[in-house]
Amino acid sequence: MKRFLILLTAVCCTLPMAAQWGRRPTPNDTLQSTRVLPDGKVLFQIYAPEAKTVSVSGDLPWDKQVRFEKAGNGVWKGVCEGLDRGVFRYNFTVDGVRVQDPKAPLSAEQSSLLTVGESYIKDVPHGAVAQRFYYSKPLGTMRRMHVWTPAGYEKTKAKLPVLYLIHGGGDNDASWPGVGAAGWILDNLLAQGKMVPMIVVMPNGTIDTPDMMGEVPVFGEDMVTSIIPFIEANYRVKADRKHRAMAGLSMGGMETMETAFLHPELFSYVWVLSSSFSPGNQKPYIERIKLHEIAPALNKNFKALVFTQGGPTDIAYNNCKETLGYLDAAGIKYDYMENAQAGHSWTTWRADLETLAPTLFR
């Protein structure tokens, strides 16, 4: 039976991803919804160009009313004073309707999930999905990742290989274990004997930068200097190239290529799902990474370099084909597949994970 999950707020969550491949940009693409100002005041912002009224509520000092004004670009702004140090709940009210902040770092986790058809959750041994916090050297702050360990990992002393699995634009590290159903898919594959036991690390690929492409090199640096060292210091893993894999979808695919292409000595398996070097002009990126110069190292170190797409309706389709043309010109070996004709969607990427995970570390 065909299985898929529907993200009820998919339109809101996929807009940043769609912006990478041709959608007309809006102020919402790079909007920071909350900002603590130098004087201690807090600026609230929400993009609602058609709204008539906007307010904010929650654990805020209501003796100081937050008044919103609408700017010409459709962004409503309000300033709150008098907040003490701490953590506060809040939500916006737009034209009388209470809404969660769609730009909050954890907004992807606020979406409701509906299961249609057969569930991914089976009566099999289940692994554990843990939230782990680490210090990011490039960003100078604590960041979060999710880590899946297979059933029985706690009872053994065996060292395992690692897959680093990255989400796309507009999502965060909870997306693969959530709507991506990664833990359940891996549980089932392992129970069926189709997959080698491994650890799967799902970092947060979303970084607040003015330019959507600006986060790509920053994340690549974070992977190499902070994420991989954290995993290898805290988990029983085989810490060598032959036992490392990296995969990413959409924006995460760009981050995967940034990391693996510039550090081919670190990875043997690389998957690029529904992605390309860049959503726009790809030549500057190719020149920056010196694609022709690094081609021999990629061919030597990558046991498998796989590109997938969700068919011609995938919004990254033409860009990906262009990327493959550059790889051909540089003599870089790769495999290509259209595993699911489901476009630029989680249906496609879940199918990719089910198909490709059994090929790792053989």
Helical content, roughly? 25-40%
CATH topology of the largest domain, what is it called?
Rossmann fold
CATH architecture of the largest domain: 3-Layer(aba) Sandwich
From N to C, what is the helix and strand string? EHEEEEEEEEEEEHEHEHEHHEHEH
Largest sheet, spatial ordering of strands? 10-11-13-12-14-15-16-17
Rg computed from alpha carbons, rounded to a whole number of angstroms: 21 Å
What is the strand content? 15-25%
CATH class annotation of the largest domain? Alpha Beta
The CA-CA distance between the termini, in Å, is 29 Å
Number of domains: 2
The name of the CATH superfamily of the largest domain reads Alpha/Beta hydrolase fold, catalytic domain
**Mean pLDDT across all amino acids:** 89
Helix and strand layout, with pairings?
Elements: E1 4-7, H1 10-19, E2 34-36, E3 42-47, E4 54-58, E5 68-70, E6 75-80, E7 90-94, E8 97-99, E9 113-116, E10 128-136, E11 141-149, E12 162-166, H2 182-191, E13 199-203, H3 215-234, E14 244-249, H4 251-262, E15 269-273, H5 283-289, H6 291-301, E16 304-308, H7 317-330, E17 335-337, H8 346-356
Parallel strand pairs: 12-13, 12-14, 14-15, 15-16, 16-17
Antiparallel strand pairs: 1-9, 2-3, 3-6, 4-7, 5-6, 7-8, 10-11, 11-13
Structure report:
With 362 residues, the protein is an alpha/beta fold. The chain folds into 2 domains: 107 residues, Immunoglobulins (Immunoglobulin-like, Sandwich); 239 residues, 3-Layer(aba) Sandwich (Rossmann fold). The protein is built from 8 helices and 17 strands. The strands form 4 sheets. It has an 8-stranded mixed β-sheet with strand order 10-11-13-12-14-15-16-17, with helices on one face. Strands 2-3-6-5 form a 4-stranded antiparallel β-sheet, with no helix packed on it. The chain has a 3-stranded antiparallel β-sheet with strand order 4-7-8, with no helix packed on it. Helix 3 crosses helix 4. The radius of gyration is 21 Å and the shape is globular. The N terminus is likely disordered.
